[in-house]
From TrEMBL:
Origin superkingdom: Eukaryota
Protein name in UniProt: Helitron helicase-like domain-containing protein
Organism of derivation: Mucor ambiguus
Higher taxonomy: Eukaryota, Fungi, Fungi incertae sedis, Mucoromycota, Mucoromycotina
Length: 148
């Protein structure tokens, strides 16, 4: 309520910055897929493991990764709140090609490559990208099937 326009009442507030005084109307959010809703809402062992490793699952299932030129002068400040300050623009970090470089045997498929290249080993490739030994192969399979 503290962000409402100063001349509006608490009973009928108007907000200028966030929604252009009612001109911007957002659609209701789509419901979560059942698989994700179950993992987030439940408190069983699989759900706890998913919540603990959610960033690893997100990385393994993403098509691209966000990257930015960070202004590191404030990033590791010892005093006050951590600041994530971007210098320049934000961009997507993707593999340079949809097919991994065959001359580089070490390089494994990642991001969108996993969906296209070597689909027989897709689950293993995702698990490798997650890089976390605690990630459940079965949970990864459920999420991968949901994405398909």
């Amino acid at each position: 309520m503290s962000e409402r326009k100063g001349n509006t009442s608490m009973a009928t507030p108007e907000f200028q910055v966030c929604c252009a005084a009612g001109q911007a109307m957002l659609r209701p959010l789509e419901p979560l897929p059942d698989q994700i809703a179950t993992l987030l809402k439940n408190n069983d062992a699989r759900s706890k493991e998913f919540k603990e490793n959610i960033r690893s699952y997100n990385s393994a299932l993403s098509f691209a990764s966000m990257n930015a030129d960070l202004d590191r002068r404030y990033a590791n400040n010892q005093h006050g709140a951590y600041a994530f300050r971007i210098h320049g623009g934000v961009y997507h970090l993707m593999s340079s090609s949809l097919i991994p470089d065959e001359s580089n045997v070490v390089q494994q498929p990642r991001f969108a490559q996993i969906y296209i290249f070597d689909s027989r080993n897709e689950l293993q490739n995702r698990t490798n990208v997650a890089g976390n030994q605690d990630v459940s192969r079965e949970t990864m399979r459920i999420l991968q099937n949901m994405m398909h």
